[in-house]
Each structure stands twice: as C-alpha cells, then as structure tokens.
Amino acid sequence: MFSRFLANYKAEDVVTHDTDVVVIGTGIAGLYTALKISRYADVTILCKKGLTESNTNRAQGGIAAAIAEGDSPDLHREDTMMAGAGLNDLEAVEVLVNEGPSLVNDLIRLGTQFDTEDGEHLALTREAAHSRRRILHANGDATGAEIVRALAVQVRNNSRIRVLEDSFAIDLVTAANGSCKGVLYQKDDRLYYLQARATVLATGGAGNMYRYTTNPDVTTADGFAMAYRAGAQLQDLEFIQFHPTTLNYPGAPRFLLTEALRGEGALLRNIAGERFMPAYHEMAELAPRDIVARAIVSEIEKTKATFVYLDITHQSPELIKSRFPTIYEFCLQYGLDLTSDWIPVSPAAHYVMGGVKTDLFGETNVRRLFACGEVSCTGVHGANRLASNSLSEAIVFGKRIAERIEEFLDSETGEPMPLPQLAHVMKSPIDKIDNRRLHLQKVMVRYVGVKRTRESLERALSELGKYVPMLSHTYSKKSDWEFINLLTSALLTTQAALLREESRGGHHRNDFPKKRDSWLKHTIFHRDVGVIEERC
C-alpha cells in the first residue's frame, strides 16, 4: 500500500554529499543532541524552515526537574507514572527523573537564563498533576524561546555543526540489511542525498493532523511517516494530548494559554460563569490534562457553547503581567485583558505521546536510526504526558543518543551506499483534491478528537480512505509530501484508536469509558508486519 519513497527522482540527478551524523529537525531535541554529538563528530542539521522554528520555541510553561528542597526524583517519578495511567516504561521514567536535574544545569551552562527569585534562586512554579513546584521557566512564559535562543547561539558558533535551513527531509535511505544510511531531502528545488553514519530524527509531532492545534505549520508528522516507510516501529499513536486551554476568540489563532496559569490559581468557568472542575476531579484545575480537556468538552456540550472561560482576575495585575508577559500582551492584541477579563478557551491538539519506538538510548529497530523528542516514543509519557516533561525528555535522551552514537562510531566503519534507483511509479490517480489537507484535519477533529467511539472512528477511516490510493505513488511537491505524511499518521492514529477498546490517558472511548486491565499493552505498527501488541 505504501510507496517506499515519496519523491519522484532519478538517482543520477540527485546530488550526494556526506556527514558523520545528520540530525533532522531542530527544537530542543535536535539542537541539544547535535551539540552533544559535535564533541566527537561532524554534524549536519536539516531544518525544514529556520533554525528556531519548532514546537520548543512556542513552549510556555517550562521544564520539569526535581531540584527544590522537599522534592525528589521519587516524587517526580510518582507524578509521571500517575499521569501516564499505567502505560509508562518504568526504566525510562527512572532515567528521566534521575538524569534530568543535572542536565538542567547543563542548559544553564550553555547560556539559558531561567527566571530567578531575588536574582539568586531559580524560580519554580507548579503545573497540573505535579505534587510539587518543580517547573523552571524563563521570561515568565517564554521558556521554550529562551532555550532555543541559547542553544541556537551555541550551534551557530560551533565549527563542527553545519546548518541547512529551508531543507525538507523527504525520506530515510536504508541498505538491503535495513540499516539507515542517511536522508533524501530537497533544498532550493534540488534533491540531495546526505549520507551519514548515524541519523537522528528530531522532527517534532503531528499536531497539524487536526484543524485546531498549538503546533506551528511545519509540524506535519514527517518523522513518523518517514520512519514508518523505512521500517521503524511506531508505538501508542492513539494517545493524543489535547491542551485544555487555547485561546478561542474570533480572529485570533489557537494560541496556547499555559498550564502554569492554573498552577498560579486560574479557574475554569462555563458559559454561565460556574466553576466546574471540582465536579470532575479532586485536583480540580490541576488535574491531568486529559481529564481537564474532557471536562471542558463536556461543559461545552452541556451548555451548547463553543468555549469555557479561564479566569485569573483574582490574582494581582502585577503578578499576572510579570509571570505571563507573553500571554498578557498577546491577548491585549485582541482586546482581552488577562488582569480583568475572563478569557475564552477550548482544547486543541498539542502533543503525541506515542511515536517512533526507541530503547533507553534513543535507538530504533532500524540500525543507525535514532529518534529524540516528540517524534520518539521512549515510554516516559505512557498514555498521558505530565506537563513540562517533554523538554526534560529531550535533553535526557539527547545526551544518551550522543553517548550511544559515539560508541559505534568508534567501533564500526559505515560504508557509503549509492542512492537506490527509483522504479518507475505512475502519477497519482488523484490529480488534485481541493482543500484535502483541511478536509483531513476536519475529519480528525470531528471523529478522532477528545472523545471517540467505534462509529466515529470507522467514519474517519471511511473518509480518509478516499485518499489511500495516493499512498502508493510518488510526488514532486512539498505540499503533496506533507499531505501524505499527515495521511499516513492520521490513518495509523485512527486504526490504533479503533483497536484500543478502553479509555486511558489521552485516548477516550465513549463506548468503552473505563480502563481495562486487558489493555495494559502497547499498540505497535510496522510497515511489513502490521499490528503488534506488546504487554507492559
């Protein structure tokens, strides 16, 4: 069903060059991993757009680490496992909570300026489902942008790192034995084959499968789909995290309003002005994200509204403006004053808990192929990611990937391999489908959203099935490559959601509203094998 390569090419027309290690994607995962690898090897970073365009750049809340008095890795582990609803990999969580604190200090060494109290102690806040204040933040609510700024400076000043911006990674190239040999990419309307002894995917998630998302436009499931076509296993794709509170206001984008607002006391009210979260969970507004998102959808359905309100007006204007300057200024552009107005919000697609399955050193089942950040599935997040664990995961496993690659670069020689000649593939039978990307996004919102049923999921597969013939053909345009990547991810996500007949974490089935012990297992997809179920 799936064409092995997306691009229409003749091997003799493709420019070949090489590097020791290629990192595909930026954000905290790509930048930090590249810096660690550059200690012993030459690295090329492929950026789909600019070096700083990523989900990380938009991250507001912060980065989680147990560094405060009264906190501990054990408490961080308990919170992470509780949020993950029984599907976390305990070993991966232990790695995260124990190795994270020292690497936060490494970010500081690399130039990240986290907020402090009295110019001395690191300022910490609390977010949903955390039992302690352990979230480091920068510039109030612009943590991701500050981390990216600091890492980008280091990358640009590193003589062992080459940055190729506006370079679209199309497909991974593999040898007959399945080992990854590099990547086929497009830059300036020209195709290139970058040979590498190791390849790291750091391409982010798949938020643009949905009509409403907190992700930038570049997040089109490219890493998931590339890895799948290359023979990598994809795990737990049914678990999509919908951020509960994104701005829902006419003329405004779905701008994320960080969880830290609720950590600082913000309340959720329905259209009638009634606070509702205590009726849904004992932790009220600080319940895990999946619970808050479903509660908001339930209130929207109950009141026949299109949003609920986020209310932090009881806090002092000084605190709001100093702690959340980015959000305050953004809302003001649309006539909304965070200090005096209730802000209309609703959930939007935010994060994929699943992804390319890796081991504890970020390696996939495809030799010499690694994955880091949201594109990966290390097992840390289980069925639902604990707030601010994503940035921690990226640096912890980025460092481990660098250690693993160093081991085998020292012990093995990577023989170069010519780009395989592409067999002639006919043009897609579907010449042009107007608004196909928008249609896919609407299908996913309507039928594979916060709440799901067998009927809705089967309807989604039927609607998406109209595009399935496109999967067996090759293309020459970026928009087509992005659509095929989104379609691949959407089909696998929907199939996984249909298979899992229970509700757990970021996957909720109205027809199976409870967790079931028989589903304490992972759903894994492989291009050739099909569906694999793996017990926890």
TrEMBL record:
N-terminal signal peptide: none
Instruction: Report domain FAD-dependent oxidoreductase 2 FAD-binding positions.
Output: 20-391
UniProt key word Signal? no
Pathway linked to the protein: Cofactor biosynthesis; NAD(+) biosynthesis; iminoaspartate from L-aspartate (oxidase route): step 1/1
GO MF terms held by the record: L-aspartate oxidase activity
Q: What class of enzyme is it?
A: oxidoreductase
Q: What InterPro entries does UniProt report for this protein, alphabetically? A: FAD-dep_OxRdtase_2_FAD-bd (IPR003953), FAD/NAD-bd_sf (IPR036188), Fum_R/Succ_DH_flav-like_C_sf (IPR037099), Fum_Rdtase/Succ_DH_flav-like_C (IPR015939), NadB (IPR005288), Succ_DH/fumarate_Rdtase_cat_sf (IPR027477)
Names of required cofactors: FAD
The catalytic activity of this protein is classed by the Enzyme Commission as 1.4.3.16
Keywords associated with the record: FAD, Flavoprotein, Oxidoreductase, Pyridine nucleotide biosynthesis
Q: Give residue ranges for domain Fumarate reductase/succinate dehydrogenase flavoprotein-like C-terminal.
A: 438-526
**Does the record bear Cytoplasm in its keywords?**
no
Give the highest taxon in the source lineage.
Answer: Bacteria
Cell compartments where the protein resides: Cytoplasm
Q: Which reaction does it catalyse?
A: L-aspartate + O2 = iminosuccinate + H2O2
Q: What does this protein do?
A: Catalyzes the oxidation of L-aspartate to iminoaspartate.
What does the sequence similarity comment in the record state about its family?
Belongs to the FAD-dependent oxidoreductase 2 family. NadB subfamily.
The identity of this protein, by name, is L-aspartate oxidase
Q: Which organism is it from?
A: Tumebacillus lipolyticus
Designated gene of the protein? nadB
